[in-house]
Design goal:
Growth Hormone, Chain: A; globular; mainly alpha
Length: 419
């Protein structure tokens, strides 16, 4: 059965979500698994703490600078084929990363991984929006993104386990091959042509060039609020992704495999729970008007931020684990409001461009946060760095509520969306 005939089935839109869930799982397993191998890279390739921070930053910055073009490309070509090419490309790079022999080669591979992975998310989010209307969009996007957190757990656990037994190269090659196998299966499922979405008031954006599309988005205050909110949460998210395994390794004297598991699973599994709940919650809140999504996001972020102060008040493992679990659940539920709102504001023909732009600013900020955390680690410790994220998130909540109160209804009305 071809992908075209599959699309005729009323269940296809959920098969598409399931396929993208698997792609997202591999995506995040590949980008985060290396953090569980940091101590081995210190020994084998001589990386310092700052050098390890640079590994995360190089990936994020290359991802960031590629994202605007990748997003625009996702609005102009068949998104299914773009996703497929990205999946196959980053999987090949991942496998090749396992055979590098020097620091600069590893840094170059992480940069290449960022460039190729940047093509995936904007196209995937916009593809889901093509097949899912406002009543199921939040739920569909949350299920697709659930793979991000499953991937972080799987990537960290596989890398830590295989790294202890076979060295740091084996898990990277293994994950690369797994991605290539998934690409072969996805060829038969992902659509080979653009699907015609339901017309919206801002469909005129189809004729806009990249500078025109970007300029029209940047003139929308609510879009800027969403992008800025993504920056604040990305700083905290990427610091945890890159440094939490090492925190458990050094501060809690865990084995490499245990630190890799806890460093990825605490945040990721609780975030997965947030994914399962947050999308449905967002869709239900939006029944009272699409603008309510931003209100919900502000409230949840405000509740999540104080939990990170636990790192400066105690070194009790169970207290820290509890704080991380609740924080990650609330933050994920909050973040799930961003993409549906962005699709409402941007419309079907600027959606991928919008995601590409926000990916750029989010990962630039996340990369800077990872690098600065490596620098601050010596003076404040990772516990001090983690606690500092609470202040960033408090500013995030204030900004979101201000955007909700001042701009959002007007901007949604201009986009032809009920609020």
């Amino acid at each position: 059965m071809t992908s075209s005939s599959l699309q005729d089935s009323p269940r296809y839109k959920w098969l598409l979500v399931a396929t993208l869930f698997l792609c997202s799982t591999i995506n995040y397993a590949d980008r985060t698994s290396i953090t569980a191998l940091f101590s081995l890279l210190k020994t084998d390739l001589g990386f310092t703490d700052v050098g390890l921070g640079a590994l995360g930053s190089v990936f994020l910055w290359s991802y960031a600078f590629s994202s605007p073009f990748s997003g625009f490309l996702g609005d102009r070509v068949a998104r299914g084929r773009l996703i497929l090419g990205s999946l196959a490309g980053w999987s090949l790079i991942m496998a090749l990363t396992g055979i590098v022999t020097s620091q600069w080669q590893l840094l170059a591979m992480r940069g290449a991984l960022g460039i190729v992975e940047a093509m995936y998310l904007p196209a995937a989010v916009a593809l889901v929006a093509e097949f899912h209307g406002p009543t199921t969009r939040g739920t569909a996007m949350s299920l697709m993104s659930l793979g991000n957190f499953i991937g972080m757990v799987a990537g960290g656990s596989i890398a830590g386990y295989m790294g202890e037994l076979y060295g740091w190269r084996a898990p990277l090659v293994f994950l690369g091959v797994a991605g290539l196998v998934l690409a072969a299966v996805a060829w038969f499922i992902l659509p080979s042509q653009r699907h015609s979405p339901t017309p919206q008031a801002n469909d005129k954006a189809a004729a806009l060039s990249f500078p025109q599309s970007a300029a029209s988005l940047l003139r929308t205050p609510s879009f800027l609020v969403i992008a800025a909110a993504g920056v604040f949460t990305a700083i905290g998210t990427w610091i945890f992704i890159n440094w939490l395994p090492l925190y458990f390794r050094e501060n809690m004297s865990m084995t490499l495999a245990t630190a890799g598991f806890f460093g990825s699973s605490l945040v990721s599994l609780s975030s997965a729970g947030g994914q399962a709940v947050g999308g449905v919650l967002s869709d239900r809140v939006a029944r009272a008007g699409a603008h309510r999504r931003m209100w919900l996001q502000a409230v949840l972020i405000a509740c999540a931020s104080p939990l990170l102060l636990t790192f400066v008040f105690t070194r009790n493992l169970y207290a820290i684990m509890t704080a991380l679990v609740v924080y990650s659940f609330l933050r994920t539920c909050a973040d799930l409001n961003m993409m549906p709102l962005m699709m409402d504001l941007a419309g079907p023909n600027r959606g991928s461009t919008a995601v590409g732009f926000t990916n750029m600013v989010n990962t630039l900020a996340g990369g800077l946060g990872v690098f600065v955390a490596g620098y601050l680690k010596a003076g404040f410790g990772l516990d001090g760095v983690f606690a500092g994220i609470a202040g960033i998130l408090a500013l995030d909540a204030i900004m979101l509520y201000s955007g909700y109160s001042l701009f959002l209804r007007r901007d949604l009305h201009a986009a032809g969306v009920k609020s």
